Amino acid sequence: MTSARIPRDKDNDYTREAAAARRAFIEEQSGASLEQTGQYSFDPAVLPGNIENFTGIVQMPLGFAGPVRVNGEHAEGDFYVPMATTEGTLVASYSRGMRLTREAGGITTTVVDDAMQRSPVFAFADARGARDFGIWVAENFPAIKAAAETTTRSGRLRNIEQYPASRMLYLRFNYTTGDAAGQNMCGKATFAACRWILDNYPGAITRYFLSGNMDTDKKHSQINTLHTRGKRVIAEITLPRDLLRDLMRTTPEAMYAARMTSQLGGLMAGAVHNGVHPANGIASVFIATGQDEANVAESHASLVHAEITPEGDYYYSVTLPSLIVATYGGGTGLATQRECLESMGCYGEGKARKLAEIIAATVLCGEVSLGAAVVSEEWVSSHDTYGRNRP
């Protein structure tokens, strides 16, 4: 038996009529109503390149947290941060952390690296063939770079890392991508570079694949934690003892003890990073601003460090080694997502690092707020008040 096919209009599939036909089809097939998903405000004509079989809209609640005070090199000042979520307490908790850090003078943010990858693999008759190929690649980097950059206006091939294994050589092409996230850009550029390699390498290549999975696209990995994928951004602050006591009802000593204890627990559990809940803030801002939501898998990796200062205050930092964000292209130009970006002054060219700094500061606020709630034993009561666990 052949299942009925979802309706499509071969002449123009991005119209309200085409979407309505698909809703009617799904309603007939499933017996469920799609009345709410059929209510939206923008023209479907803007969607080519973003989705196929456009049928309607899934709406999420949007709240603004803040303001968060950012003392960055690209983001400077107070920002209200859009967060799309269905988890009660989340926006309130981030806002609480933002108040604490704002009264402490703001969060210092620094983008320390910026790179996006594609990692092809080449196989040879033996390991020596792979080694010789690696030498040739290094010697011919300028020509490989030129071939890659014929496909893009903003992408630049920065360097090529080499990882030999068995009779294969894995290459990790590192690009800067401007204000785009850049995965597709890097794939297209690397494909052009590989074609040039195949046409010009004088030796024998047994086979090659455009992706050898050492870029670990949309998957967490240790190599991206060490070498960066997207923006590597660090947020840091020193929280005065009195502020922690007055606003969070805790102390630097209690916060530090909880941090050390949780790191040991995470180590025993095999956790891949030592953050508290960075995915909460990152996912909610990603959805609100039109980022590729699957990139949360890489972007949420965090390296948290804390110290009690000689003055008795609390230094706290969050390093996000693989924060993948865009302010141009992809879903950022859709109507509501663009509005959210514009509310922070982050839409368009020249704004990706600014957005990265705001998100890193937001993550820090959530980490401190939740950590303090656990230490002061307010975690459960806050969810009872704001969240799903209402009596």
- Please summarize the sheet with the most strands: 10 strands, mixed
Kindly state the percentage of residues in helix.
40-55%
Q: Report the sheet-strand fraction.
A: 15-25%
Helix and strand content put the structural class at alpha+beta
CATH architecture level-2 label of the largest domain: Alpha-Beta Complex
> What name does CATH use for the topology of the largest domain?
3-hydroxy-3-methylglutaryl-coenzyme A Reductase, Chain A, domain 2
- Low-pLDDT windows of residues: none
CATH class of the largest domain: Alpha Beta
Mean pLDDT comes to 94
Number of domains: 3
What is the count of helical runs?
13
Shape: globular
Could you provide a short overview of the structure?
Keywords: NADP, Oxidoreductase. Helices cover 40% and strands 21% of the residues.
Key features?
alpha+beta, 10 strands, 391 residues, 3-hydroxy-3-methylglutaryl-coenzyme A Reductase, Chain A, domain 2, Alpha-Beta Plaits, 3 domains, globular, ten-stranded mixed β-sheet, 13 helices
